[in-house]
Amino acid sequence: MRKAEGAALCKLHLVTPRFTIHETIEVGPDIARIVVDAPRVARHARAGQFVIIRPLDDSERIPLTICGADPDKGTITLVVQAIGGTTTETNAMEAGEAFSDILGPLGLPTEIEEFGTCVVVAGGVGVAIVLPVAKALAEAGNRVIGIVGARDDDHLILVDEMTDVCDEVLLATEDGSAGTRGFVTDVLEKVMGAHDVDRVLTAGPIPMMRAVGELTRPHGTPTIASLNPIMVDGTGMCGGCRVTVGGETLFACIDGPEFDAHAVDFVSLQKRNEAYHTFEACRLRDAREELDA
Ligand code: FAD
Ligand code: FES
Ligand code: MG
Q: Which CATH architecture has domain 13-106?
C-alpha cells in the first residue's frame, strides 16, 4: 500500500462520524420528529428497518424505526415518544447537537409485493413504524387503507403524512375527539366487512397488535405485526429480543422485527417487556431531574 493511501485509510478510521441533529420538532405530546445526519444509514435503509441509537455517551442503546430517509441529504427521520429515561434524553436534544452513535439499518426489510388491498393499523407512536411501510406498499401498486388510533385527538400523529401515502385514512380515538370513538380494531372490523383485504400490517402497543391478530385470524388474512421487544445490541448476540413465534424462539433484531401476528406469543412478549419496570421508573425520574438541573 502506498504511503498516501495508508495515511488516508488511517484518517478514515480516526474520523468519528457526527450524527448531527438538523431539527427536533414536537409532533405530539412528548413525541418528537428528529432529522439527523446518518448518510450511510440513509443510503441503505428500507421500509421496516430500524436503527439503534445512543443519544449521549453514557446513554443506554435504544431501537427506533427509520421513519424516513433522504439519501441525497444524508439524513434519516426518527419519531420518538418520550416514555422513559433514554427517550426523554433523546427528545431533549436540539438542532446542532449530535447523537453519540447510530447503528443501522438493522432488521429485515418489510416484504413488499403487489398484494392487492392492504390495511396498515397503528396505535400511538406505531404510526411512525407503519408510515414507511404504507409508502412502500403504495409504491408497489397496492391499495392501502390506513387506520390510525390514539387516546385522543392530541395524541394522533403523522395523520397528514399517512394521508399523503394511503388511499384512505381512518381515525379512531378512545374519547371520540377525532374519527370513530373506540379502538382501531372497531374500525378494522368494519373495513374487513366492507373490503376484500389481502394483507394487514400492524404496529403499536402489544395488546392492540394481539387484538388485530385475533380479529383477522377467522378471516385467514395474512397479518404482520412489527414487534417491539427490548433490544440491546440489535445484531443477534445478546438474546434480549427473543420472541416466541409458532413455538420457535427467534430474535426480533435479525429475524424480524416483523412476524406473523397469528403465530406470535404476545403474552410472553408483554411479560418480558415489563421485566424492568421498577428500574425504568427510577431511571426516568433521574433523567428528568438531570434535565431540570
Ligand atoms: P424505559 O423506561 O427504559 O422503558 C419503557 C418501555 O420501553 C419498557 O417497559 C420496555 O417495554 C421498552 N424498552 C425499554 N428499553 C428498551 C430497549 N432497549 N429496546 C426496546 N424496548 C425497550 N419507539 C419510538 O418512540 N419510536 C420508534 O420509532 C420506535 N421504534 C422501535 C422499533 C423497534 C424495532 C423496537 C424494538 C422498539 C421501537 N420503539 C420505538 C420503542 C423504543 O425502543 C422504546 O420506547 C425505548 O427503548 C424506551 O427506552 P426508555 O429508556 O426511554 O424507556
Ligand atoms: Fe440482542 Fe436481538 S437485540 S439479540
Ligand atoms: Mg431505558
A: Beta Barrel (2.40)
